[in-house]
Amino acid sequence: MILLKMAVRNVFRNRRRSIITLTAIACGIFTLVTMRGMLNGMGRQSEMNLIDLQYGHMQVFNQDYYENPAASVKDSIEDPEKIIRALKDVDHVTAGVERLIVPSMVNFDGNDLTCLSIGIDLGQDEKVFKLKPTVVEGQGEYLTEGPHAMVGERMARTLGLKKGDRIVWKARAMGKEGGGSIQAVYLEVTGIISTGNPAIDGAALFIPLDFMQESLLAKGRASQVAIRIDDPRYLERAFLSAQRVLKPMGFEVKTWEEMGKAFLELHRMKKIGNGIMIGVFLLIIMVGIVNTMLMATFERVREIGMLMALGMKAAGIRTLFLLEGAMLGLMGSTIGVVLATPAVWAMEKYGIPIDIFTGGKDVDMGYPIRGVMYGDLSLELIIWSLLIGVLISTAATLLPAWRASRMEPTEALRHA
Prior knowledge:
Layout (H helix, E strand, L loop, with lengths): L1 H12 L1 H41 L2 E5 L17 H7 L6 E16 L2 E10 L14 E3 L10 E5 H7 L6 E7 L9 E12 L4 H4 L2 E5 H7 L8 E6 L5 H12 L4 E5 H4 L1 H39 L1 H9 L4 H37 L1 E2 L1 H4 L13 E2 L5 H18 L1 H8 L3 H6 L2
């Protein structure tokens, strides 16, 4: 208790020096919280985008279909309804929906563009995916049965498409022996969607499933059955349950994490890069704290000598300096967190327009998000940031504390 009182007195004795140190620590922690909050928010938003718009929580395929680059309609699931019925015995599954996905080509006004055509069940797709809110042109109409299509925003911009235009859609039909001729069909564009996901916005064409199956002579077939579960925390449990039920039937189950591992790896690398950048910033702050505490050590040589002459051991001197460093770290970190919390909360609630970072240009940031970028404020981030600030400040005090504890009392008392 005595050492703590002395540490408090020493911290506030030289206010100017303490204020400079606290400001440096607060700036470092403010940067840490805001940048981490922004990056975590982008990661969470991207994950939800992948789940809601591209993968669902899990997908079911015919055995080896997913890894087969030459897979076509003939390799698709013959009876997807059998899988959907079997999903009733899978833990945590709330819905399953079939989709037919084939490589294809679109022609408009003499321009060709390769794309991925996705046949969706208009009555059931919304139970797993959330495409409707992404419609930016043709709002409220969505898709209707028949020769209609929705296209991604980037794809529409590339071809110069707008709502109401008619495109020529070309894809290979299944045929009697599994491989058929190229089918060419006119489709009316009923909507344009903007998801922020380059795989969808730049190269996806959505067509009513029934019409697509009929056009490709693949009645009742589906490339995959996408699954939604009640709680993402139980993904592993649902995956194991789905495998147990579906694998004996000859089907393969993939989680969104496995299918989206390229994005997850990118996000992990960006977090590492962000951590290195913040680490360098905090290292600079750490050097400043070391310098401040060393100056305090030289100014208090006589005081340290007197304390040691009165019986304080070297361990007590080291503890005193470490307490001062920890106090500065806690105070500076608290200030930084207090200032950063409203900023990250505002990012989480209102978001930041991505145009601020891209200058209004169509730039792929590597994250499947669009329009507005949201932050993520968590108790874990706040506590972690406070601990980082205290640990760095305390660690920066180790050298000054060691030097102070190594002083000889008689020499220290003679110091002018």
